[in-house]
Amino acid sequence: MDSPSLSPSVEDYLKAVYALNEGGGPAGTNELARVLAVRPGSVSGMIRRLAEDGLLRHEPYRGVRLTKEGSREALKILRRHRIIESFLVQRLGYDWDDVHAEAERLEHAASERLIEAMAEALGHPSTDPHGAPIPTRAGRIDPTPVSRLDQVASGSRFTVRSVADEDPGRLRYLKSVGLVPGARAVVRKGGGEEGAVTVTVEGGSDPVKVKRKVARRVTVSEA
Fold first, then answer.
1. Would you list the DSSP string of 103-119?
2. 120: which residues sit within 8 A by CB, 6+ positions away?
3. What is the pLDDT of residue 3?
4. Segment 91-136, tens digit of pLDDT
5. pLDDT tens for residues 140-189?
6. Are 100 and 166 in contact (CB under 8 A)?
7. What is the pLDDT of residues 4-22, one digit of tens each?
8. Ramachandran region of residue 152, left (φ > 0), alpha (ψ -120 to 50) or beta?
9. Which parts of 91-196 fold into alpha helices (H)?
10. Who's near 212: CB < 8 A, 6+ residues apart?
11. Buried b (16+ CB within 10 A) or exposed e, 45-59
12. Cβ(16)–Cβ(27) under 8 Å?
């Protein structure tokens, strides 16, 4: 079987830069250090290495962005991660709050042959259990207009598209109040800059207050 050519640490860096670049700006050294739980000095050294390898482009005093090659590699990693999560949930009975750490470990070892066999067995899903889009084998993600839940105005109806998968406790909470991918709801009171967002989920009875830091990790679209 073939195996990934990049080291696990390089794959983690590329995936982290991709996630930070999704916000539209470059990824800063301190942001990467926080996300990867490493020292800023270690980040600086890896950035130089990845820039020399043509995977990153450094913007002085601002941060880094992925090159075309770096983005292609990052999307391969995301594809492996999200297909593994999907397989664990759909075929092995894992709960959606119990797959992220497992997929983090397995994504570095899984061959492309194994990943494609998993995708075939699952019927080539377009999203993972948390609603995140799965990149195609060619390394593409179709852009979908979404907003964060904390940005939705009072009175607006929305559909949950995805939730961040790295915090099991947050996932259990969101499931308990019905804010899962595909759920429809209405914002009763927007959170503004600091407050909680109050929502009513379709099929539910009582309004739910969602802390702003949680609402920031939920993407939605207009219902």
1. HHHHTTT--HHHHHHHH
2. none
3. 42
4. 999 999 999 999 999 999 999 999 999 999 999 999 999 999 999 9
5. 888 788 899 999 999 999 999 999 999 999 999 999 999 999 999 999 99
6. yes
7. 479 999 999 999 999 999 8
8. beta
9. 100-106, 112-122, 168-176
10. 150, 191, 194, 195, 196, 197
11. ebbeebeeeebbeee
12. yes
Between CA 52 and CA 56 the distance in angstroms is 8
Residue 65's DSSP bridge partners are 57
What is the rounded CA–CA span in Å between residue 90 and residue 137?
A: 20
Cβ contacts of 167-170, under 8 Å, gap ≥ 24: 167/217, 168/97, 168/98, 168/100, 169/97, 170/214, 170/217
Asked if 161 and 221 touch (Cβ cutoff 8 Å), the reply is yes
- Among 151, 148, 133, which Cα is nearest to 217's? 148
pTM across the whole model: 0.90
Residue 134 and residue 83 in contact, taking contact as beta carbons nearer than 8 Å: yes
Helix (H/G/I), strand (E/B), else coil: 63? strand
Please name the amino acid found at residue 175: K
* Angstrom distance (rounded) from CA 26 to CA 63: 5
Residue 1 has pLDDT above 70, yes or no: no
Q: From CA 200, how far away is CA 188, in angstroms rounded? A: 7
